[in-house]
Design brief:
binds adenosine-5'-triphosphate, 307 residues, globular, 36% helix, binds magnesium ion, four-stranded mixed sheet, UDP-N-acetylmuramoyl-L-alanine:D-glutamate ligase, alpha/beta, 15 strands, single chain
């Protein structure tokens, strides 16, 4: 069982208008609402890949059902801590004429000490029942930057994956998760300098691995990806595909790694599955997640070289 911790889920409300008028009146042509969150994405893609998964996090009673329903429909478990109030809404205004999106995001409700303690308990419980716990995404107001560290430390004996940015990653790494997946920018933030070349990125990733992280994977968007266990390092150049939307590419990549790990594959095998899943994700439109057929077709197209 893969447990995905999603502490700051959201409802994406996408509205389409003909042409955005700043400071004026905009008429909505069509709209849709999706229950989202990086942990939700990983749980859903894990299901697509045939793994049992569940999503836990904070959900709010007024409108959280949209997210719970999406998980249930995919056959993923939902074990959230439910609180009174509303899930934050992220408004995405799509300007049809100029094909541009303006985003207006809410921060989310404040999470107090009692609620944080409930989440620590939840993670302790899940760690006993899951093979892997995935910690990913932003933290809601009230959760300190070392909250992932606290949670990972509470998940003793369970394999933990951390995909977070800035302080959340730096502090979370102190708890020695099994795998981290920064993108290039997140790795740069971690090491405090710009990384210009592949050897520089490799060096920085290997240094992170030597801090006691078993697997460090770095995704570089359209420039491919690399993975290291501190000894060996593999690079995969980008697979040339028609890019429709990069939304959820990183989350799909994490789910692909989990698939490789669940099959007991070696580092190169785990890497291949992650890259195939990330690449499959960019070939789908809008907020749609990866399709199984695209992932399977992609596996043989991923070229891996040791660097
Ligand atoms: N333009 C692209 N062409 C082909 N593959 C891509 C492209 N962008 C991303 N990918 C694939 O998806 C993987 C993850 O993408 P990326 O590095 O953008 O993740 P991320 O920044 O963590 O994204 P997210 O916003 O989902 O967190 C890449 O390593 C690559 O395999
Ligand atoms: Mg990411």
């Amino acid at each position: 069982m893969i447990g995905c911790i999603c502490l700051n889920p959201c409802i994406d409300r996408t509205v389409e208008i003909e042409e955005f008028t700043y400071g004026g009146m905009n008429r909505i042509l069509s709209w849709r609402e999706d229950g989202c969150g990086k942990g939700v994405n990983v749980a859903l893609v894990a299901r697509t890949l045939g793994m049992d998964s569940l999503c836990a996090g904070f959900l709010f009673e007024d409108n959280g059902a949209l997210i719970a329903e999406r998980l249930r429909a995919a056959g993923a478990g939902e074990e959230c801590v439910w609180l009174p109030g509303k899930v934050r809404t992220n408004l995405k205004v799509f300007d049809r004429k100029n094909a541009r999106i303006t985003e207006i995001n809410e921060a989310g409700a404040f999470i107090g000490e009692k609620e944080r303690e409930k989440m620590v308990e939840k993670v302790r419980d899940l760690a006993r029942r899951c093979d892997t716990l995935v910690f990913t995404g932003s933290l809601p107001p009230g959760c300190p930057a070392d909250f992932y560290k606290t949670l990972i430390e509470s998940a003793k004996g369970c394999r933990c994956v951390l995909d977070a940015e800035g302080e959340k990653l730096t502090r979370g790494m102190e708890a020695r998760p099994y795998l981290i997946k920064p993108n290039q920018y997140e790795l740069e933030l971690r090491v405090g300098r710009k990384l210009e070349t592949l050897p520089e990125i490799k060096e920085a990733a290997m240094r992170c691995a030597r801090e006691g992280i078993a697997v460090v994977a770095v995704s570089m968007g359209g420039d491919g990806a690399l993975i290291t266990d501190g000894e060996t390092c593999y690079y995969a150049p980008v697979v040339p595909v028609k890019v429709r939307s990069t939304v959820g590419a990183g989350d799909s990549m994490v789910a692909g790694f989990l698939h490789g790990l669940s099959l007991g594959e070696d580092l190169a095998g785990v890497f291949r599955r992650g890259v195939a899943a990330g690449t499959a994700a960019v070939t789908t439109e809008g907020t749609q997640l990866m399709e199984l057929e695209d992932y399977e077709a992609m596996l043989s197209r991923v070229a891996i070289e040791e660097i």
